[in-house]
Amino acid sequence: MKLKSLIITSALLLAACGYTQAQSTQVIAHRGFWKTDGSAQNSIAALVKADSINCYGSEFDVWLTADNQLVVNHDSTFKGVNMQKSTAQQCTAVILDNGEQLPTLRQYLEKAGQLKTRLILELKSHKTPERETRAVESIVKMVKDMGLENRTEYIAFSRHATKEFIRLTPKGTPVYYLEGDLSPKELKEWGCAGPDYHFSVFKRHPEWIKESHDLGMKVNAWTVNDAKDMKWLIDHGVDFITTNVPVELQEILQ
């Protein structure tokens, strides 16, 4: 009888540990929650919809235009308009798939101020380090002026942009590097909050997840849309998963 009770207790403890681990993984909507009616990638609607389903964060992409304004879009050239070579007026004249105009960063942040979800801001890699520095300076100032410093995290593929975010944001601001070519120890030396790598990098280097945690850093994996990959990452204890299908991930976590 005692053995049976011990087995049951052990099973319950294991289940509880698994539940706790699953609950500790947070959902980030990639380019907002855009795979739903009335939405589009990097639209303000996608931000609102990510907030409406209680995502930890909504990821979005930022460019510096030719006239030094900030706009929100993923592709360097979208519907025939090059983000870096065009003016803000030319960029925002582009109509997204849901009928919205391509938003400026200011418009995006104005709406974000009414919401709760965290802002996962990716600065796209620009033509020169000087342009990236100018973009980072403008972004950091705008975020501060709009009172969103405590809700904004920064990510970049560019080493220069990553280091500039670390240099210019308030101490403790989460800044993550995306490329996948540096170890957790190297990222810690930079001052990064942790690795934000494609999930395939962690499958090649699963030890990097534990190493990051041992160094006091967080781990995010992108862009994860397959349930098997989600479950593997959850089982390995990643802190965040960025996905195009946030509702499916939420269902797995529950």
TrEMBL record:
PROSITE patterns per the UniProt record, alphabetical: GP_PDE (PS51704), PROKAR_LIPOPROTEIN (PS51257)
Record-linked SUPFAM superfamilies: PLC-like phosphodiesterases
Top-level taxon in the UniProt lineage: Bacteria
Signal peptide: 1-22
Domain GP-PDE: 25-253
Pfam families, A to Z: GDPD
Keywords assigned by UniProt, alphabetized: Signal
Name of the protein: Glycerophosphodiester phosphodiesterase family protein
Source organism: Bacteroides clarus YIT 12056
